[in-house]
Each structure stands twice: as C-alpha cells, then as structure tokens.
Amino acid sequence: MSEAIRRDAVTCALAGIAAVDPGDLVRRALGRHRIVGDVSLVATGKAAGAMASTALSVLGQSVRRGVVISPDPVRIDVAGTTCLVGGHPIPNERGAQGARMILGVAESLRADETLLCLVSGGASALTTLPAPGLSVDDIASATTLLLRAGATIEELNCVRKHLDQLKGGRLAAIAFPARVVAFVLSDVVGDSLATIASGPTVADPTTVADAIAVCRSRGVWDRLPASIRSHLEGGTDESPKPDDPRLGRAESYVIGSNVTAAEAARAQAQALGYAARIVTTSLTGEANLAGMEIVKAARDECMRVGGKVALIYAGETTVTVRGNGVGGRNQELVLGAAIAMDGVPGMAVVSLGTDGIDGPTDAAGAVADGDSITKARAHGRDARATLAANDTHTFWKSIGALVRTGPTGTNVMDIIVALAVSNGALRA
Predict the structure, then answer these.
(1) Is it true that domain 33-256 has CATH number 3.40.50.1000?
(2) What is the CATH number of domain 2-17+259-426?
(3) b or e along 174-189 (b: 16 or more beta carbons within 10 Å of the residue's beta carbon)?
(4) Terminal-to-terminal C-alpha distance of the chain
(5) Domain boundaries, the chain
(6) CB under 8 Å to 239, separation ≥6 — which residues?
(7) Are 315 and 282 in contact (CB under 8 A)?
C-alpha cells in the first residue's frame, strides 16, 4: 500500500508539471496578441529557453535581435540572439552582463518597433542590474539576508524594485516610445504582474519607504551593505507609478499559472480513482507547518468522504532558516507532513517545485508516507532535529524519498498532492 500510494502521489504531481509547457503557452499568446514590424526579444527566467525558441520560430525574420537569460545553459542558433546563464536565487555578474545588454536594447528602440518580453520565474534574480552606486555583490548580500529571514516573494521583490535599473516598470519606461508586449508565466501567488519578476514592464505600486519597512520588519536593515541603506534612505530613485506616461505603450499578460498545473494534477488523481479536489492555488506560510495542516485536512476529508481522496494544493511556502543544513521549501513541507502522519497507513504527501529545483539542491522535492519517519530513524535521522537544522535534503536522501526531475523548463511555483485511503487508522 505505501509504495503504491506514494507512486500515485508522484504521478499526479508530475502530471501537473507536464501540463504547463511554456512553448505551448507562448504560441497561444502570439495567436491572441498580434505583433507586427521589427521585434527585439528579451526572454528571462527558468522558462526563457523554451519561451524564446517558440517565439523565434513563430515570428521568424521579424525578430532582429534577442537576449535570453536563464539559470541553465540554453542553445538557440538564431543570428542576433545571445544566450547567457545568470545566477539564481542569488544574482551574479553574468546575469548583470545580460541585464546591461537588455538595457542597451531598450534604449535603442524606435517608436515603430516592439520589445517582446518573455518572463518566467527566477527572472528577478537572473536579470539584476544594480542602480548607480550599487554592486551585484550588494544585491546578492541583501537577497541572501532577506531569504534567510523568511521574506515572502512580494517583500523580496519590493526591495529589489528599488535597487535595480530594470525592475518596477523601469524596462518599459526606458523602451518608450516603442511598444512593449510582455508574456508572463506566473510564479507568484495571486499572479500579480507587479510582483512577478519584480514587474519590469508594469507600474510599481510600492515605494522606497515600503522597501525600507520590509528590511526593518524582517530584522535585516542594520546588516545590509551601507551602500544599500544609503541608496534607499536617499529616496530619489523612485520607480514608475500608474500615471507615468512612459508606460502608456506597455501591455503585459499572464499567459500561464499554477491553476493549469493544479487542474492537471486533479484530473490525474481522478483517473487513478481518487475523489479529488483543488483546495487552493494560493498556498503560503511556513513550509513545515503547511505540511502538517495538509495532512490534517486530508485525514479529515478521508473520514468524511471515505474511499480514496486526493487534495491538491499549489502556491509557494517559505522557510525561516535557522540552521546550516541543505534543503528547500518542498522538502521542508513534506517533512512537516511526515511528522503529522507518522505511523498512519494509507496516506502520502508529495511537494514539488514545478521548475524541478527545490532550493540549492538537485531535487524537485520529496514524497512521504506514514512509514517515512520510522525508516529515517533506522538511518539515524531525527525529524525534528532535521527541521531545526534545515537539513531536509540529507534526511530524504537517506531513505531514497527525493523526487528528481531535473530542470523542467517551466516554473509556476509548487504543486502539492495529498492522498488518503480509508482504513481503520483514519477513524477519529
């Protein structure tokens, strides 16, 4: 039973990832939104390669030049197209080089040209162009501090938008009066265009004061590089707001999100005989606590409905780092779930990053059942000590419970599947 239910859970989650193909999404978007004349292409993010390849094949000779920045090597043999590997989740100089190329493209556009921006998860870190007086190392330090403090993506990108030359609507403002069209694959809860990739083509509703407030509330302000504190306190480099005329020719569209992935996971669960439903596509919160709550919800659902049930979640949790171990939010969520279902048969939980990368690890996530804690204990692993050390990768590796997909070429946050099958252990 344990092996079968774990296999079913992973099958459902992988079906969700397979349903979010960036190339198909771009092809459909180009069919809906007509682009004519000379085009300059910018693709950045974890799906940049697939999105750019599709756009180039559809638009053909109308694309005069392109810049593609991704976290992994991409090969596109089209004249005038440059592919670079940037840093994620911590920015690096290679990404900054690509960002400078994008800046040069935007500055050179004529009013009768179009800048086509293909944006996906990870673009904010990958395409970092520090504001004057700041360095990539400064931004990297601030990013690391905020991530370790458990900052949400909204908070992190609020700060990034006030330290960068392209974020927060600045790219569209620089490209004006050219037309700007952005096709965006959402990797944030709620699909806010102002948050995804730090909103390079849309007006920024946040302010420098908001960025300072985030840093103070997360307890990192006094540890930030002095150059960043000085830049923010100066308050002179505000991002474009909704009434900025330079954004008048910019159009931005979310062409795909985690709803598609969740629907596909639900359909797969139903095909396997589970009574399945999507609980939310806006899951947030501390990862291990979310895992515990998901187990409780699945047990309650199974006792109420009976038979085989599947609960589908999508979103992005966070991890407040307190230890020096290796792991990711999906592996932490599954460990929280494993603790909650320890000794309970007929249950399984899997959580995967749809990009195939969970934190700084080689896994997309992990899968657990009611026997996982016992198995790990036999290998000398203590679940709660693992959480305290944030060393979930070591924990799951020890019992062969990591799920490895490799980079998937897409990114719509995380997909979580919880399965439960009626048996005596699930009675109240």
Answers:
(1) no
(2) 3.40.1480.10
(3) bbbebbbbbbbbbbbb
(4) 21
(5) 2-17+259-426, 33-256
(6) 161, 162, 167, 168, 169, 170, 204, 206, 207
(7) yes
Say whether pLDDT at 105 is over 50: yes
Report the C-alpha dihedral over residues 291, 191, 266, 317, rounded to 10 degrees.
-10
Pairing of strands 81-85, 250-256: unpaired
pLDDT computed for residue 428 by the predictor: 43
144-169 b/e (C-beta count within 10 Å ≥ 16 → b): ebbbebbbbbbbbbbbbbbbbbbbbb
| Nearest-angstrom CA–CA distance, 256 and 21 | 9
Helix (H) or strand (E) holding 228: helix 226-234
DSSP label at residue 164: B
Residue tagged 């030359």 (tokens): 165
CB atoms within 10 A of CB 24: 14
CB 286 within 8 A of CB 321: no
pTM score of the predicted model? 0.79
What is the chain's mean pLDDT, rounded? 95
| pLDDT confidence tier of residue 287, bands split at 50, 70 and 90 | very high
pLDDT in tens, 56-83: 999 999 999 999 999 989 989 898 999 9
Kindly report, residue by residue over 371-406, the tens digit of the pLDDT: 999 999 999 999 999 999 999 999 999 999 999 999
pLDDT one-digit tens code per residue, 190-201: 899 999 999 999
